[in-house]
Structure formats: structure tokens, C-alpha cells
Amino acid sequence: MAPRKWDADRWAPLFFTIWGGQVFSLLGSRIVQFALVWWLTMQTGSGLVLAKATIAALVPGIICGIIVGPLIDRWNRRHVMLIADSLIAAASLGLALLFAFDLIQVWHIYVIMFLRSIGGSFHWPAMQASTTLMVPEKHYSRVAGLNQALAGAANIIGPLVGAFLIAVLPMEGILGIDVLTAAIAVIPLLLIAVPQPKKAAGAVQMTFLHDMLEGWRFVASWRGVMWTVLIAMLLNFLLAPASTLLPLLVVNHFEKKELFFAGLQTATGFGVIAGGLLLTAWGGFKKRMATALFGVIFLGAAAVLLGLTPPSLFWLAIIACGLSGLMQPIANGSITAALQASTPPDMQGRLFSLVGACASAMMPIGLAIAGPLSDRFGANTWFLVGGGAAVVLGAAGLFIPSILSLEEEGAKLAAAREAANGSDLTGEGATSPAQASE
Fold first, then answer.
1. pLDDT tens per residue, range 370-413
2. How many whole angstroms separate alpha carbon 327 and alpha carbon 1?
3. Measuring CA to CA, which residue among 393, 399, 230 is closest to residue 303?
4. pLDDT at 207
5. CA angle 61, 283, 229 (to 5 degrees)
6. Residue ranges of the domains in the chain?
7. Side-chain half-sphere of 208: how many Cα atoms within 13 Å?
8. pLDDT of residue 425
9. What's the pLDDT score for residue 291?
């Protein structure tokens, strides 16, 4: 059966049908993520093992970021998402079988996380790039905020359900839920056509290498993006490892069990929902990047507060995680909306994959350092280091003009590219959902 053709006048029900499928997939992934992290924590008690697992999930995104973007901009994005979701489901099914037959080893989890990450490396840039063709521009920030709120809801429900399921189901049963939710995400993609970017009139089909180099040149010429990526790389080097070490902070510093770990993640999730809904209703400052930088500052302050919390004041840790969650949509959602609003649709696959790869490139290095140090000095030390760095970097960004004027600079680059190509590539009409359907 052929998928339903996209109707720009009825974009909301079509978009949110696809979006709803992603809700189930994200929830299943959060449940499995919680269960696997806790299994590794209980089996090994090692920060280094948790760091290795996270690195296994990060490396594909860094490597694939070099090549994924041009492929997404060349291929049918609906097909990309279908194949990626199917790969993720297959990986979870394989891991479930290993648990079922009692063959599981720690390194098996590394491998499965690696494979799931490959699927995610294709899926999420394709979804982000497709959103700008499915949603009117005036709603970009609100949809980004809604996506962040969804992530927050998954962070609330996932850990709570995961903690409950750990007590009543074997690991293969929990992994089976992830397979089911991935299948639910695939169904809307089978039924609804996703808009595709319109090719330039009379354009010559270029090679993959040409498309890849064009993406690199476009990003490199955009000073605001380059500064943003640099700050993101430093943040991911210094702050991102803290989230990986959270279960060790619960076990070793607070001397608590899985329900308390779920409690901290739930507090983060409530914060993300609140922040996402706030961004959805408010939309942020006129300059979206200023909104993002203030989010980074307070995100760092929350990490510092968590690192300073003594074992006897667990309630203060809950507040710190709630504040951290509140700031995540403010920072991430605003950056995403700024890039979506100022990047030509046919370039967005390359931009999002490259930006994601560069921003993630420092995380394995940070984790490789943070894992052994947390085993030696305690996990809370890394929260202090990373949180303090985030406060400094966010404040510094407010004094960099290229970051604050990122959208204006992007619009100029898009206009120059349009003029050079002699056709409309900016998304004004030629790439509207009404005209760019499968």
C-alpha cells in the first residue's frame, strides 16, 4: 500500500501521527537504557565500565557524522528512518536472545549499544531535517520545546517503569518491550509520506564526495556555528560524563538503590517537561542563541549543586536534577530551532550530522578520563568540574557576537548560496511541504 501523500494544509495531524510513533520508540529506549545501565552498575560497580558503554554508544555518531549528512540529503528521508528504526529493533532483539539463553557478557552490551547508535545516527538527523519541511517555520521553537518535553516525559516514565520491570521481568522481557515500541514507531512511517527537499531546477547530480565537502565548507564558513560547536565540544568533554556517572553517585556517594536512581532521573524528567513546555509557550528570547546560553549557565549551576550535595541531603540532589532538566530544553531546543530556521532544507541533513559529530567528538575522551578518576576520587568530583566549566562557557558565549547573530549570519550564507546556484534553495516556497512531497 502506497503511503498517504503529504498535505501541507493538514500538516498537524500528519506530523503528530509520525511524532506519536517516535514517542513510543523513545519511551522503549529509555526503559531499556535504564535497565542496562543499572545491570552494568550492579554487575561491575565500575565507572570505567559505564564509561566504556557510553563510548560504545557515542563512537558511531562521531564516525557516521562525517558521511550521514550527505546521504540523508540525497536519500529518501522516510526510508532512512524506517531502516534505522528497524536496525535498532533488531539490535534489541539480538540482545534479548543473549539474555534469554544466558549467554550475556558485558562486551555484548557494548556491541549492541554500538549498533543501536548507528541506527540513531541516521534516524535523528533525518527526523530533524524532515521537521522543517513538515512544520511551518513559526512553530520551530515550539516543536523543539515539545520534543524536549517529550524527552522529559520519557525520562520520568522510563526510569520508573524500568525500576519496576527489573523486579518483575527478566532482562529479555524488558528488551522485548523496546522491540515492540520500535515497531510502533515504524507503522506511521509506512502509512504517511514524508516531504523531501526539492532539488534545484536544472541542478546537476553531484557525487557523494562533492556533497560531503559542500556540507563541510558550509559549516566552516558559518562562524556562529563554529563557535557554537567549539563550546559544545568543551561542554561534552567536561560536563557530559557526569550524567554517565550518576548511578555511581547514587550507589557510592548517597548509598542508595535503584529506586533512588530512578528518582533522580524522574526529577530530571519533570524538569525537562517543564522546560520544554516553557519553551513551547514562550518561544525564548528574540535571539534564540541568547536563550540557549542562559540555559547552559544554569545547567552548569545545577551540576555544581549536585556535586556539592552531602549524602544526608538527598532531597537537594532531587532539586538539582530538576533544575538540570529544566535547563536542557532551554539550551538544546533553542539551538535546534535556530539552526532549523537559518539552514537551507537541502543542507540540513549534512549540518545536523556534522554538528552532532563534532559536538560528540570530545565525549569519549572526557569519559575515558572521568571513569578512572571517579573510581579514585568519587563521582561527585566530576560534577563540580563539569558544572563550573559550563557556567564559564555559557557566560563567555554571551560576549561572542558571532554566536548571538548566528541566525542572521546563516540567512546571509543561505542567500549567497541561492544566488550562486541560481535557484531557490532557501525553503521559500520551493521546499515547502506542499511542493516537496514523496
1. 777 777 777 788 888 889 999 999 999 999 998 988 888 888 88
2. 43
3. 393
4. 66
5. 30
6. 8-199+207-421
7. 7
8. 40
9. 92
Amino acid at 360: S
Tell me what pLDDT residue 199 has. Answer: 59
CA-based radius of gyration for the chain: 21
Closest to 264 in 3D by CA, of 291, 279, 243? 243
**DSSP assignment of 50-117:** HHHHHHHHHHHHHHHHHHHHHHHHHS-HHHHHHHHHHHHHHHHHHHHHHHHTT---HHHHHHHHHHHH
The reported pLDDT for the residue numbered 436 is 37
Q: What is the pLDDT of residue 203?
A: 45
Q: CB of 110 within 8 A of CB of 134? A: no
Burial 227-252 (b: 16+ CB within 10 A, else e): bbbbbbbbbbbbbbbbebbbbbbbbb
Determine the 3-state secondary structure of 199 from DSSP.
Answer: coil
Per residue in 401-437, pLDDT tens? 989 888 888 888 877 777 776 544 433 333 333 333 4
- The count of residues in the chain is 438
Q: Give the pLDDT of residue 66.
A: 66
- Closest by CA to 368, choosing from 250, 237, 249, 231, is 237
pLDDT less than 50: residues of the chain: 200-204, 423-438
Local structure of 309: helix, strand or coil: coil
pLDDT (0 to 100) of residue 53: 83
Q: Name the DSSP letter for residue 193.
A: P
What is residue 4's three-state secondary structure? strand
- How far apart are alpha carbons 337 and 148 in whole angstroms? 12
Neighbours of 161 (CB within 10 A): 20
pTM, entire model: 0.62
CATH of 8-199+207-421, one of 3.90.850.10, 1.20.1250.20, 3.40.50.2300, 1.20.1310.10: 1.20.1250.20
Main-chain dihedrals φ then ψ at residue 192, nearest 5 degrees: -125, 130
| d(C-alpha 422, C-alpha 184), whole Å | 42
Q: Shortest CA distance to 367 belongs to which of 53, 92, 43, 28? A: 53
CA dihedral 228, 233, 234, 237 (to 10 degrees): 160
